[in-house]
Predict the 3D structure of the following.
Amino acid sequence: MAFFIFEFQGKWCVRERTGKDIWQHLFEFYTVETEAAVEWNQPVIQQWLEQQGLHRFQLMGVSPLQTQLLTHREIRTVFIQVKLSRLPSFLNTYRWVDRRKITSLPFPRIVTRWLEETQ
């Protein structure tokens, strides 16, 4: 899993999870889930972003692999921070929150832990 933290004009995009799962009513960043492990390095990220129609962006950072044990599975994720120069249409359904206020939202523990480490 990869969480893309897209930033535009000092705001980060998030959405509330509405599906009936353990993270229902918690917020999340743009999420890419894969069956197989992906090494999210700069060339892979750049190619993925370009496939989404993004050509002008700044890659701000990629976290080390983060893990969280759940009762039925292990979550493995990286956090990829990308500063955008324009808003792409695939993010139209997301809410944009001032990055300084992002910690006021409820997130899954793995996201909260990453936010605590980076803020």
